[in-house]
Amino acid sequence: MLYKKLSRQFYNQKTLKVAKELLGKFLIHKIGRQKLVGMICETEAYCGLNDLASHASRGRTPRTEIMFDEPGHAYVYLIYGMYYCFNIVTERKDYPAAVLIRAMKPLVNSRGIPFGSVQGLQKASATPLDGPGKVCQYMRIDKKLNGIDLTGSKLWVEDRAVKIKKFAVHCSKRIGVDYAGKYKNKPWRFYI
């Protein structure tokens, strides 16, 4: 079966569209000979300088510089001094927007071991990694991957032809952004 790595053109679309279309796609992190793989099942969109929930609302800083770069790069940051969050930069260069990967289902073999550890059949785990910190722990994503090009060969997203029916996609307000004024209730969180 052929898997298609998402191109820069995919990420160079409106952030809300990318956030929805990432559902059912697979995040892959290649570490040596091992590949950690998981199906994305929850995302949140952060759109532009006016979005008070976005780090970019404070302007261009060393931390947010990657959000102003071309689409298809990773924006990784630390929260609470202990958890990493993985975002994908979207839209055009110099427009700060990104999609946070909030949850995913890890791909495991027939013995329940993460795919890439041993040979075996692949299946999506019944237990999702619910929370961006858990996603990064499982996928071994940390600050060293901040800015990495997601069209490269170390960390990327693939389309594996999983079809998500429209009625299966839900949206709600984003989590943990009560400080964001009128932006706290934007229905920019998408999940299966």
- Total number of helical segments? 3
Largest sheet: 11 strands, antiparallel
* Distance between the first and last residues' Cα: 24 Å
Low-confidence sequence ranges: 116-122
Order of helices and strands: EHHEEEEEEEHEEE
Mean pLDDT: 90
Anisotropy-based shape: globular
Rg: 16 Å
Q: State the total count of DSSP E strands.
A: 11
Structure at a glance:
By secondary structure, this protein is mostly beta strands. It is built from 3 helices and 11 strands, in the order βααβββββββαβββ.
Q: Which helices and strands occur, and which strands form pairs?
A:
Layout: E1 4-5, H1 8-11, H2 15-21, E2 26-31, E3 34-47, E4 74-79, E5 83-89, E6 97-108, E7 123-124, E8 129-130, H3 132-139, E9 155-159, E10 170-172, E11 189-191
Antiparallel strand pairs: 1-9, 2-3, 2-9, 3-6, 3-11, 4-5, 5-6, 6-7, 6-8, 10-11
What would you note in describing this structure?
This protein is mainly beta and 192 residues long. It has a single domain (4-191), classed as Methylpurine-DNA glycosylase (MPG) (3-methyladenine DNA Glycosylase, Chain A, Roll), CATH 3.10.300. Helices cover 10% and strands 32% of the residues. Strands 1, 2, 3, 4, 5, 6, 7, 8, 9, 10 and 11 form an 11-stranded antiparallel β-sheet that branches. A hairpin with a 2-residue loop joins strand 2 (26-31) and strand 3. The longest helix is centred in the C-terminal third of the chain and has 8 residues, at 132-139.
Annotation keywords:
10% helix, eleven-stranded antiparallel beta sheet, 3 helices, 192 residues, 3-methyladenine DNA Glycosylase, Chain A, mainly beta
